[in-house]
Write a structure and sequence with these properties.
Radius of gyration of chain A: 23 Å
CATH topology of the largest domain in chain A: Uridine Diphospho-n-acetylenolpyruvylglucosamine Reductase, domain 3
Oligomer: homodimer
Number of helices of chain A: 17
Structural class of chain A: alpha+beta
Number of strands of chain A: 18
């Protein structure tokens, strides 16, 4: 094809024909494949794309984007499909770009504590590759997500209180922009004042401004000593108070996770443990042998002052691994409590001084509405999840769950917090952005229009144009 | 005035008349005031604005922006005038908005480790206000800059290696956008995935996308123990090697600053000290009593392995203050070496593994060209400054200095670094952005056009439209 091409709007079959020529059998239009790529583990409305492209290079993504731009066909990037707010739902159809075959670790610069990976590399893959270098990548959202997807959704997780989120740990990105230009957002320098922060613009943009194909990341030395432990408290409030005190006194906790009593009960059954069925903090401290122990001792004192404890610690790797596996299994553990119900996993984040209050509010709200909703949280950041169980055929229960969720978000925003600490906006949180951002939402829309004037990049997510 | 107004392009006298009505004698057209507001301490070409508005509130800034938007009159924000790349030069004339009277500390939320200040509050003012709370704000670019200006230029300085830059420490901003809308970029939550990162878009935008009027900042607990010290080495290379080893082994240094022998000589004279005239690292460690001492001891070992030392430390606050005052005075100390010459202070930042190499390259280049150019650096980040002395009337020397500076930047970019680690772009570094960002520069231009279509916000800085 050459010369000027008359384009017809969103001619998806023409786009599929041209991409098929490019990828051969790496373009699938099988309904099963398409459905699997358009639906996430939540009850956000899934919608299959018209085709799924299994790409192998930035240049292939560039060619696909150019074809889609020509036909104004939507493009939805896909990593591991573990996002939780309907991010991958192809609401206007189009081409899903599956990056999982782009799974090469391109470079590890041990002396600079950084690396560069293709977007489909998962965090566990990276850490297992790094094992012999003495380095690790800390961000851990639970799921073994792709690093491109984690950047796109500004993921964080249990370690964020110490190491930050993807916002803080992405050094630079390679992005295919909606016009097909390939942009490298920044150099490998640790800091720069050389113009607008394109890296941070793309991190958290959920595929609506471009497709991330490579990710430069900060790495960290594996700490000399790691102390992990669990500490039960009488009340959720006491857990929150202990968290606040630890943060306020500058204790450099690496993880501090709240698991409520409902969750502990489920975990005990699922993971064959015998933890006290009480609101519990799971903690981890990183440092020198002396330093990590000193931190753990300081926390012990805080806990005792609040009537909590005993703070039981483990330093052996297998014991720590078992403990964190139990924490990560918390979500799955609860599934078995009401196996026939669906689960709405939502998250908010507030200033830590308001944490105890908002947790109490949502607990009471759920109790008043007869909803089973365990709470689990990265409380060092003021961020927590509520996993509400619901029989989707029970319209009253569904309405109640949605209403509780809405009040939770409204309370978070009223407390100068955010409607989502780490899950992202996708489809699920769009309706709250005006309340949270006000005129800022218009700025976001202006950015989207400027970068993606044809609205082909994951349309309908974050912002409707 | 009401109804539809016919606008004439850049009718600055009309804009001045309307702003004058608003501010009375807080709008100055005095040549002395205008000249002082259009020229920075460098030899970037200064240009006075047509008037200077001393504003007192976000709402006043909003009104001024609306007037300027109507007449397409340029607006240049001004904090303390200590930026170093011609940021405040009114290249197209217009109104300078001086925010120094907006110096109120609006709230300190000690329990959340955050605060909110008006943009004109300086960092020293904030820290002296915080003294009794046990908290501090770490970012320290040397000058007692305004926090709005520091956010606008993505400032950092000696503490960045431990605490990050303004990118990492601004929680949220209040910004008057080019259309006069007031945007609050984010909540007080420590993390959020709720849409595009407007905070990071504005941080480092140098007044080209809007005027920052309020700044929300992270605070930190004053460490229990601080150990500071100086450690001489035989060569700059050994200093760089020691820095690399400390960073690579994960030593949480709070400051690690390279001062070359030329600087030490000047400091000894200026600050009446008797430091060894050798390349020297100035260091600081924060932690518990035990932890800070453990860190200092680890560094001592590194230094000894590289033939450096002795590492002499101080823990008493007055001794530490004297030491850091000497480090901060380094710039002024060198002025006295060639009092009749001007100084070009430039900065670049590279991956730390390339630090020793690029420092050696620029030192040799200056030697070959007979330029006196002390080097000083935040080497833990791979960031350093070269202060080149020049007789501006000596055209050959000026050409040589500019050529050395150009080669330094080109080397930094070739090493996958950046043309500026912390000074910003302004006028001085614009010419290097294409080489550093490639197609990314077009994305920056698209952002600028989308947010500021009339190009009234600090026009000519970062990007020419």
């Amino acid at each position: 094809m050459s010369g000027v091409v008359e384009t017809s709007k969103n001619n998806v079959s023409q786009a599929i024909a041209e991409i098929s020529e490019l990828l051969g059998d790496r373009l699938s239009v099988s309904l099963a494949v398409c459905e699997q790529h358009g639906d996430d583990p939540t009850w956000n409305p899934g919608m299959p794309p018209d085709a799924v492209a299994f790409v192998e290079s930035t240049e292939e993504v560039q060619k696909i984007v150019r074809i889609c731009a020509k036909y104004e066909t939507p493009i939805i990037p896909f990593g591991t499909g573990t996002s939780l707010e309907g991010h991958i739902s192809a609401v206007n159809g189009g081409i899903c770009v599956d990056l999982s075959k782009m799974d090469e670790i391109l470079e590890v610069n041990a002396e600079d504590l950084d690396c560069r990976v293709q977007a489909g590399v998962t965090r566990k893959q990276l850490n297992s590759y790094l094992r012999d270098t003495g380095l690790f990548f800390p961000i851990d959202p639970g799921a073994d997500a792709s690093l491109g997807g984690m950047a796109a959704t500004r993921a964080s997780g249990t370690n964020a209180v110490r190491y930050g989120t993807m916002r803080d740990n992405v050094l630079n990105l390679t992005v295919v922009m909606p016009d097909g230009e390939i942009v490298r957002t920044a150099s490998r320098a640790r800091k720069s004042s050389a113009g607008y922060d394109l890296t941070r613009l793309i991190v958290g943009s959920e595929g609506t401004l471009g497709i991330i194909t490579e990710v430069g990341l900060k790495l960290y030395g594996i700490p000399e000593s790691v102390v992990a432990g669990v500490c039960p408290f009488e009340t959720v409030d006491a857990c929150c108070q202990a968290t606040m005190m630890a943060i306020q006194m500058g204790l450099p906790v690496a993880r501090i996770e709240l698991v409520d009593a409902e969750h502990i009960k489920a975990i005990n059954e699922y993971s064959k443990l015998s933890l006290d069925v009480k609101p519990t903090l799971f903690l981890e401290f990183h440092g020198t042998k002396l330093g990590a122990r000193e931190q753990a001792d300081s926390f012990s004192e805080i806990a005792a002052d609040l009537g909590g404890g005993p703070f039981e610690t483990a330093t052996r790797e297998e014991d720590r691994a078992k403990l964190w596996q139990a924490r990560h299994d918390a979500f799955w553990a609860t599934v078995h409590v009401y196996p026939d119900k669906q689960r709405l996993s939502t998250d908010v984040c507030v200033p830590i001084s308001r944490l105890a209050e908002i947790v109490a509010l949502v607990q009471k709200d759920m109790q008043d509405n007869n909803i089973y909703g365990p709470i689990i949280g990265h409380v060092g950041d003021g961020n927590f999840h509520v996993i509400m169980f619901c029989d989707l055929d029970d319209r009253q229960e569904l309405a109640n769950v949605n209403a509780v969720c809405k009040r939770l978000v409204e309370n978070a925003i009223a407390m100068n917090g955010t409607c989502t600490g780490e899950h992202g906006v996708g489809l699920g949180k769009k309706k709250y952005l005006k309340a949270e951002h006000g005129a800022g939402l218009d700025v976001m829309a202006a950015l989207k229009r400027a970068i993606d004037p044809k609205n082909i990049m994951n349309p309908g997510k974050i912002i409707s144009l």
